[in-house]
Amino acid sequence: MAWLVSLVGVGLVMAALRDLFHTLWHPTRHAGLSRLVMTGMWRLARRLRARRRVVGLVGPLAMVTVVGLWAAVIILGWAIIYWPHMPGAFTLTPGSRAAQQPALLDSVYLSLVTVATLGLGDITPAEGWLRLVSPLEALVGFALLTATVSWVLEIYPALTRRRVLAIRLALLRDSAPTTQQLDSVAGALLLDSLATEVVRVRIDFTQYAEAYYFHDGEDHSSLAAILGYASALAQRGQAAQRPDVRLTGDLLANALEDLAGILDQRFLHTGGPSATVFAAYAADHGRSVSQP
Known about the structure:
The chain is mainly alpha-helical. It is 71% helix and 2% strand. It has two domains: 2-147, no CATH class; 154-284.
């Protein structure tokens, strides 16, 4: 029976590690803990019609919540592993009052100390297998800290790329390039560079899906609000006289269609064309699609 309880703890630890792995290093369409938490918090904020400042906190707060849940599940899982063997399989320092406490409380305490790599030493494993398992928890705690830092360092560059594209499109809209200016070598280079940036954003939504739940802020930095203008630029490029401009116009249009497919598949589920997906994306972020 004791081993069955310990196996439950092993299952909890493995579930947390699996979710961490799929969130950071092998993103999939399967809804893990991080996706469920972020989706739930985002929908709650939208349903309550919270102010933009509040909605803007959903992404960071959801990341903190997910990391806290990972840590809690790992600590609880290892505590359950220790619990059936506490205190008989452990050595207590002289004068320690650990044995006078409930076994579960001592197990949670030991798990917290070990995952934080404090190494206080007042409760130490005595049996051979526990002497191997306990250091593994310290390694997992170090991996969790490293993963948290890596997650932050991955998400925020993706947000920067998205906002840079949005601001660039907003500046182009304000500049109002003429048909003659767009139907030139410079226009072809412009459309090609925009297509490249759209593809990068598309990859970011694939690799770092959690970035979707970060609010972009003002309209000029909101990709959700400005994508309509990108579509208009693509159409103008496709209708140009120069073949190189038409080619890059097709490239931008295909990149936008691919982006719409990812947004619809992973987040919006409209089943409609690109214009419908972009309108739903803007509405989900509290914006309206910018008209050319």
